User: Fold Beta-glucosidase from Actinoplanes palleronii.
Amino acid sequence: MTLDLAAKVALLTGATMFTLAPQEQIGLHEIRLSDGPTGVRGLKFSGGRVVALFPNATLLASAWDADAAYEVGRILAEEALSQEIHVVLGPTINLHRSPLGGRLFEAYSEDPLLTGKLAAAYVRGMQDQGVAACLKHLIANESETDRNTVNSVVDEATLREVYLLPFEIAVEEADAWTMMAAYNDVNGAAATEQHHVNNEIVKGEWGYHGLIMSDWFATRTAAAAANGGLDLVMPGPGGPWGDALVEAVKNGEVDESVIDDHVNRLLLLADRVGALGEEPREFPGGLPAPDSDVRKEQLTRLAASGMTVLRNENAALPLARGTRVALIGRHAVQTIDMGGGSAQVNPPYQASVADGLTALLDDVTVTDGVEVRTRPVPARGGFLTDPVTGKPGIRVQLLDADGTELEDRFCPQSSTMVGMDDDFAGVVASAVLRGRVSAGGPVELGVLGAGRWLVEAGEESLRYRLDLTGNGFGEAVLAPPLRVDRFVAAEGDILTARVELPSDGTFANKGLFGLLGHVAPRSTVDVLDDAVRAASGADVAVVVVGLTEEQETESVDKTTLALPGAQDALVEAVAGAARRTVVVVNAATPVLMPWRDRVDAVLWAGLPGQEGGHAVAAALLGDIEPAGRLVSTFPAADGGSPAWSVTPVDGRLPYDEGPFIGYRGHYAGRAPEPVFWFGHGLGYASWDYSDARLTGSDQPEVMVTVTNTGTRASREVVQVYLRPDDAAQPIRLAGWTAVKVKPGESARVTVHTDSRMWRVWNTTSGEWERASGGQLLIARGLGDIRATL
Ligand code: BGC
Assistant:
């Protein structure tokens, strides 16, 4: 059976938001895709199935443990299989270039070797179960500002030695079945049209047989993208290929063999995931539910093992079991377990640190902290309830242009996606959102989403219009306009908001809509007073601070690394009053800690997933050792990184620091001494290093004896860095090995250095060369170098 040109081209655009069309004549079945990377969300963009929420990528990476990454890939595959999903859109393997990048929480690290090795393990874990992984986003997509139009300008050597390296490793070591081309341009050509990267390097030099799909709505052209190595346009239906691509083949702009190559790659993917043949794949039943004990154990262990002890004076941690703890902070009661954007999932529950610590300790007082958000979020914690069922959440009625009801839905997240995940045939012209207010007194109420609004609560009503600023998919879907106003509510009042959706533009009749609401904030002075009182009455104050999905999100970058709100003042106030102060940082990426010398301990906890609070508690008490090592360097101040600005100038974002990102640039003196180096992490032991030796000349290996001089069994990550003699070449991680050692005992550890770290790209000859000589440093992060060979 052969397909004609139009039928072939039809396969190369998605059928829906997250599916690919079947083609019965050739035995091709529907292929179903889902985000990734830290939970398999399913076919709906939001409000979909309840699925397991994993620790975020930086927290997983902080374990420096390929076996754990493999396990995560395997469990994610199970989550996919139980929803009949064939492709998971992850891992994200862009690098932490500037710490301002909003989406770094989704990506592993600032280091290409660590990122590539963990990605390869994750991909193997997933694909060994017959579920495809997707490496994203190819390439030079390290920040979000103007992501649809920015031109990342990167020299060829840096592109290959740094940004392409994780993709190369994951292709070589795990043969990832798909990749995703990014939104941005690279050196003047769209990532979806990057002949040089997609065709010459990835499919040519690396011999990649997998499929390259576009990021969602990223494809701009027919001929240029098809010729530029893009195999599949996502999502669909619609988009720039279809008839235009058929026409481009007919008029000779695109050779039909190019179309055939794209189709072959699609069919290979289908074959690999069991979607090609007489019968569609049978999916296994009986896999662990997202809230099963199996998942609880896995997710707690994976989260806690990556948590990182940044400071620990006088063995303040782990906490003894009888300790009286004052637990303080907004993040203690509303722990942030995931970042914002397409990585968000709908988890069965999210355990807060308050839940976790009160479950393990008898004497814990819990005190809410200062406000941490400037942008209100959809109502949570039962502040609004569905007037029909009484459940936490809201009721949304969707109407067509005639006012006929298309659907009446309950939205537990107090928000809903319109026009993208809908199963009905009509077009939504307006919606009515309703929630019952569960608290009386001064409250802030409002709405989320573009359109003309009529908002009514109690006796009051307001009319206004919210417009999109034209920032594309990211804005309409991930960060739509919103407004809140102060009301004095009576308990039981119903907040009703009617909206007429915009009916023109790309995101006509589409977007995220919701109701916002919370008790009006208390004054900071009152909150600090309460915190100080609580802290002075306990043995230890544990303050949980952090970022929220306002800072750690797809589609928006940060502007500062400072903690939002008056959280620094809260820590200072507590540290001044408490006998001992332990700070838990609930954020995926570096934050500034001006108080760090005045507190006893700092535990970095990442965005720990649905078991987050239990994992933090286990780490604080030492039930699971927080044996993490940082995956990014923590600068001392805003601006204190080798690459800082993420704002394009005249559309260009030059990667001027070249290969000197993160620790590489700090070490070369291109940025001030950081507060905590990449690779830093104390665990709960101390270590002696002795008898370091170098073996193997072509592919050097390092042997060293590590002795646990602490009082607890612990896991050490022995890191080896190559410092080339040529100062134009940055220092780089060349390998690592982790080992578990009992107190008082030693282990002889071998670290292989990766051959790819000994290469240098010669731009003139267009070939790899071997790096000049250099030294190997054995270090616990570059702030603590133990031997030089
Ligand atoms: C993101 C991708 C994601 C896609 C589908 C885009 O906004 O950049 O990473 O896979 O949406 O949700």
User: Anything to note?
Assistant: Residues 35, 89, 136, 215-216, 342, 473, 554 surround beta-D-glucopyranose (CB under 6 Å).
